[in-house]
C-alpha cells in the first residue's frame, strides 16, 4: 500500500469523503516533506487559499495532518502525520526537519500513566541551529 492509499484509508475510517481537494493536498504533503505553509500549498497546487485552509482543517481534525506554529515567520506550517515523528526546528532560519529515529508510539500511553489524563494530542519539538546556520555563526570546526 502506498502512503497515499494509507492516508485515504484513514479518511474512510473517519467517514470523511474522498474529495479531489483532500486527495490533492494529502498527495502534495506526502510528496513534499517541506512543512509548507497554506500559501505554499495553494501556489503549488494552483488552488484557492480558502479551499486549502478548509481542506487542511478537516485533515488536521483527524490527525492526518499536523500543524506547526512557526515562531520564525509567524505562519502555520502543515505536515503529513501518518506516522508519529518529531520535529527539529532551526531557531535562526526556521527550517524544520523530521526525526523518525525515536519510537514515539508509547508516548501517549506513558503520558496517560504519568498524569491519568485522557491524551488527545502530542508533539515533540527540538530547537537549535541547522548545519547552514552553524556555519553562518562560525560554530563548526
Ligand atoms: Zn538554520
Ligand atoms: Zn514532520
Question: What key phrases describe this protein's structure?
Answer:
5 strands; two-stranded antiparallel ribbon; alpha+beta; three-stranded mixed β-sheet; Dna Ligase, domain 1; 2 domains; binds zinc ion; Arc Repressor Mutant, subunit A; about 140 residues
Structural description of this entry:
- It contains six helices and five strands; from the N terminus they run ααααββββαβα.
- By secondary structure, the protein is α+β, with helices and mostly antiparallel strands.
- The protein has two domains: 82 residues, Arc Repressor Mutant, subunit A; 59 residues, 2-Layer Sandwich (Dna Ligase, domain 1).
- α1 packs across α2 and α3 packs across α4.
- The mean pLDDT is 92.
- Bound molecules: zinc ion (2 copies).
- One zinc ion (ZN) binds next to α6.
- The site of one zinc ion has 4 residues, from loops.
CATH topology of the largest domain: Arc Repressor Mutant, subunit A
**What is the molecular shape?**
globular
What is the overall number of helices? Answer: 6
Share in helix = 40-55%
Largest sheet, in brief, is: 3 strands, mixed
**CATH hierarchy: architecture of the largest domain:** Orthogonal Bundle
Family: Belongs to the Fur family.
Protein name: Transcriptional repressor
Keywords: DNA-binding, Metal-binding, Repressor, Transcription, Transcription regulation, Zinc
Cofactor: Zn(2+)
Amino acid at each position: 500500500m502506498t502512503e497515499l492509499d494509507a492516508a485515504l484509508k484513514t479518511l474512510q475510517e473517519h467517514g470523511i469523503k474522498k474529495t479531489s481537494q483532500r486527495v490533492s493536498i494529502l498527495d502534495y504533503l506526502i510528496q513534499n516533506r517541506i512543512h509548507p505553509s497554506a500559501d505554499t500549498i495553494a501556489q503549488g497546487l494552483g488552488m484557492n487559499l480558502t479551499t486549502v485552509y478548509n481542506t487542511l482543517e478537516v485533515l488536521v481534525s483527524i490527525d492526518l495532518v499536523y500543524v506547526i506554529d512557526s515562531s520564525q515567520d509567524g505562519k502555520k506550517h502543515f505536515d503529513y502525520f501518518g506516522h508519529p515523528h518529531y520535529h527539529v526546528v532551526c531557531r535562526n532560519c526556521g527550517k524544520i526537519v523530521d526525526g523518525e529515529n525515536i519510537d514515539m508510539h508509547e508516548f501517549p500511553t506513558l503520558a496517560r500513566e504519568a498524569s491519568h489524563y485522557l491524551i488527545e494530542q502530542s508533539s515533540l519539538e527540538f530547537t537549535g541551529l541547522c548545519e547552514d546556520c552553524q556555519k553562518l555563526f562560525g560554530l563548526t570546526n
